[in-house]
Backbone:
């Protein structure tokens, strides 16, 4: 089932009937290779993509030639549901790893909107989750120090992966280079490198071969001033995300 | 509520500059996180020193001294 991770362990969820209806609305499943652009800025689009496997990003190519990562997506995320109403994006959507995505035509989403108000509300909730995360990213860049930014980003990614069963609670896969982390946190490679060393020496986490090993989750949460309320996780996963409950049983 | 808006007030804690691999990394205060070449860092330091001296003169001259409004003779 391609939609199994959608709204998993959030404060609202899909009923079995809603998940079945969403699944039935999938037009096709596509794959993109790591580094490929799935949706280009300013291009008319008639479909929206649900990330099934892998990691994707939203990024803005600024006039100064720099790429800025403005969102990282994990399985279960609709990467461009907002294109349903906007019809073209103000940013690119790219594959960070090899990915598979479920393709929904906007006609199919329109039919859901007309025929199933409850499911339409769930989809609206998903775009509101996007907005909440963007607000938090603004906060992170405007108010946090370099170490706090990286710690916050790690905690956020860990929490999101916990929700979809992709973290064991003491580590997760993060297929990002130091440059990618720098783009997320608006830091240079040198700065990221130093922060990662500091986090390791503080006994909070270590990053090796695209794996983040969490050594002290509660400490990492404190260092990143991380509060998961904006992710609208259910109570159990929210508690796990800040280290108040032990390891997850899944994946 | 106004008392809680610390972000509207000047910071009283200093940023920390560190030399890393031939460049200077400046952390804080607040959300400052910048990497500079040694030359850029030195120029920034000089500019900060000059601005700090001028700010102290403003403070010593009392309210309004900075823009000349209400300042004493």
Residues:
């Amino acid at each position: 089932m391609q939609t199994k991770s959608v709204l998993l362990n959030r404060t609202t969820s899909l009923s079995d009937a809603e998940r079945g209806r969403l699944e039935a609305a999938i037009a096709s499943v596509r794959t993109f290779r790591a580094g490929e652009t799935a949706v280009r800025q300013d291009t008319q689009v008639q479909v929206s993509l649900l990330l099934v496997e892998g990691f994707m990003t939203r990024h803005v190519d600024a006039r100064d030639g720099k790429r800025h990562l403005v969102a990282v997506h994990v399985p279960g995320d609709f990467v461009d549901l907002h294109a349903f109403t906007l019809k073209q994006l103000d940013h690119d959507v790219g594959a960070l790893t090899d990915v598979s995505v479920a393709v929904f035509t906007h006609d199919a989403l329109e039919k859901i909107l007309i025929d199933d108000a409850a499911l339409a509300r769930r989809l609206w909730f998903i775009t509101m989750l996007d907005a909440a995360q963007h607000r938090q990213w603004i906060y992170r860049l405007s108010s946090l120090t370099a170490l706090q930014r990286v710690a916050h980003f790690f905690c956020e990614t860990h929490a999101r992966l916990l929700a979809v069963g992709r973290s064991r609670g003491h580590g997760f896969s993060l297929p990002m280079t130091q440059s990618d982390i720098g783009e997320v946190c608006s830091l240079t490679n040198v700065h990221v490198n130093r922060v990662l060393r500091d986090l390791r020496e503080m006994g909070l986490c270590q990053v090796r071969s695209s794996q983040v090993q969490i050594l002290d989750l509660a400490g990492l949460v404190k260092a990143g001033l991380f509060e998961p309320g904006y992710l609208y996780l259910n109570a159990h996963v929210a508690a796990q995300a800040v280290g108040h409950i032990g390891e997850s049983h899944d994946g | 509520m106004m008392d809680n808006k610390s972000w509207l007030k000047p910071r009283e804690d200093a940023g920390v500059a560190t030399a890393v691999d031939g460049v200077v990394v400046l952390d804080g205060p607040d959300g400052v996180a910048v990497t500079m070449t040694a030359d850029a860092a030195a120029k920034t330091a000089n500019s900060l020193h000059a601005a700090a001296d001028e700010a102290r003169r403003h403070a010593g001259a009392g309210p309004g001294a900075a823009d000349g409004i209400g300042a004493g003779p």
